[in-house]
Amino acid sequence: MSSFSSLARSSAIMTAGTMTSRVLGFVKASMLAMAIGVTAVQADAFDIANKVPNTLYMLLAGGVVNAVLVPQIVRASKREDGGADFTNRLLTLSFLLLAGVSIIATAAAPLLVWLYSSGWSEEQMALATAFAFWCLPQLFFYGLYTLLGQVLNAKSSFGPYMWAPVLNNVVAIAGLAVFILIFGTNNASPHGLDTWTPDKIALIAGTATLGVAAQALILIWPLKRIGFRYKPTFGFRGVGLGSAGKVAFWTFAAMLIGQIGFLIISRVASGASIPGDGNASNAAYTNAYLVFMLPHSLIAVSLATALFTSLAKNAAEEDTEAVVGDFSMGVRMVGMVNTFALAALVVLASPVAMIIAGPGREQAMAIGLVIITMVFGLVPFSANYLAQRVFYAYGDAKTPFLIQLPQIIFQSLAVLSVSIFPKSVTVAIIGLVMSLGYLMAMIISFAVLKKRLGAIDLRGILTSHVKFLLAAIVAAGAGFGLLYFFPDFALAGRWQAFITTAAVGTVMLLFFIGACYLLRVRELHSIIGVVAGKLRKTA
């Protein structure tokens, strides 16, 4: 079983990296808006060109690489050479595939821009295509970053993978600063379609790609520090890559049906938009999903990344008891944080929505309702994410696909049927449907895991979550009580919403921690023990 202190330390390092990257990401977005605007045609052109490589990578390889590399490298490490030959062949094959796809995608830039746009003028299409020629090589560097990062994760070096995106944002921010310094802001000197020269295009799009390249290449240094030396090795038959191919196939299939499900949600949410009525539509769904994913990406992803290597090692050694112990600990730790996030976001949904989407009381309340219905699925969503990592640790990607299939079918059919409800609550109903789908997937995953492993410490998981829920109710009561005294201030503007969220959220956290302490929540006491031990060492 993983050492709790080691797991907590690794998760904290990764969470800090993710948080820093998110903050710099907001800075980058603000500077980009200052440089070329938000609603201007040139902003749309750059947005499409810069998003296409990321979207293509996530569809074609993102989840595949994450599911395949760590378990395969961990299992190969038992070979006489420590898995060096296998890892070199796997990386060589992956690099070749990435390079080939990236070259084809870059050459097809005009076609890709046409696919992702609609109703644009020839001038706007030409500008977006010029941006895309500079941006599409990002596809290769996104892949390189993930490949090298997963090798580091397999070697239990977690921090660099989560901190590397910080460098990406720093480089991109520097590029935007130079652009503003040389060419001015969009307000001071509007950058219309007829003003874009090759040097302007190269500066803003080239530095965006340079940031992604830096994010990938910086990982070479920590790889050298842990003693990994990559040597291009060809010959891909008869060396055990077949199992990796099977995992990749089922992971890609799962991502594909997931994209189909999101496409249905997007189209139905778009249909809820009626000009001038203030209904929550696709933009509201996007903002609510951003809020929903924040606690998951900060906590569940960081902890699962640190836990995945241990799960893969224990699975390879057929140590079922250790696998069950790691899984139970992971679900309980993530559940404690997510249960507080659930309470906080239910209470502060509208102020949080105003911080993200801007002022407007009706808009904030509409998005807030979507956040509330969506966030009820946070705990099962993260729990199922951890369950998937157990399957992947055993080299099994088919079972997660078979579990996801009924979930997507249920969610898609339910979303398509929301037309019977008023358009004013369409997206909120979609959020509720998603939550139910996540709950269904978690129940199926836990049932299959219990059958496969013999036990998953279900009693311990449920007992802990009941205590989390009681503590969350106490924290929510305190939060609602505070909001009762200044209901108008909370939604008076963006800064007022931020102050409200910070103040009420802090009080709720103190009440949650206090309640967990009185309920003798072992996860909290474990954290207190680790912190106390660190303080004693530094004293």
Automatic annotation (TrEMBL):
Give the UniProt subcellular location, in the record's own words: Cell membrane
Membrane topology term reads: Multi-pass membrane protein
Per the UniProt record, the lineage of the source organism begins with: Bacteria, Bacillati, Actinomycetota, Actinomycetes, Micrococcales
- This chain belongs to the protein called Murein biosynthesis integral membrane protein MurJ
Organism the protein comes from: Brevibacterium sediminis
Q: What CDD domains does the record point to?
A: MATE_MurJ_like
TM region(s), chain numbering: 55-74, 95-116, 128-148, 160-183, 203-223, 247-269, 289-312, 333-358, 364-387, 399-421, 427-448, 468-486, 498-519
List, alphabetically, the InterPro entries matched: Lipid_II_flippase_MurJ/MviN, MurJ
Record key words, sorted: Cell membrane, Cell shape, Membrane, Peptidoglycan synthesis, Transmembrane, Transmembrane helix
Q: What Pfam families does the entry give?
A: MurJ (PF03023)
